[in-house]
Amino acid sequence: MTDFAYTFPPTKWARDCSVNQLIQGASIAHEVYEAFSEACDLSHGKTDADAVAVEVVDVIQACETMLRILERDNGIDAGDAVRAVYEKNAARGYYDVQGAKEAV
Fold it and tell me: pTM of the full predicted structure?
């Protein structure tokens, strides 16, 4: 294990479900869609920012559950996955390098 730190405690599904059961039960991509469609009224330009924030954090927790299951069942290392995403997105130029320098 690396130094990856989860934000939330494990859910009951992290202990009892397989990846396939979790995917069948609730698609994370669908959760994201539902979160924004429930909280945003795009046709009228209205957004309930608090509701969007809560739904986004709920999706983060669902993703953490998936990572815990992958660790348990497949031996993946969440820290390695985070580094891989960072390296991939850095290579694509996704990060605000100027903003990061200003934050330090």
Answer: 0.72
Tell me which residue of 80, 73, 76 sits closest to 22, measured CA to CA.
Answer: 73
Task: Give CA–CA dist 53/70, Å, rounded.
Answer: 26
Q: How does pLDDT run across 43-88, given as a tens digit for each residue?
A: 566 667 777 777 788 888 888 988 999 999 999 999 999 999 999 9
What is the sign of the dihedral through the CA atoms of 37, 43, 48 and 52?
Answer: positive
Q: Is 46 helix (H, G, I), strand (E, B) or coil?
A: strand
E-assigned strands of the chain? 40-41, 46-47
Residue that has been written with the tokens 């698609």 in this structure? 27
Residues 6+ apart with CB under 8 A from 4: 77, 78, 79, 82
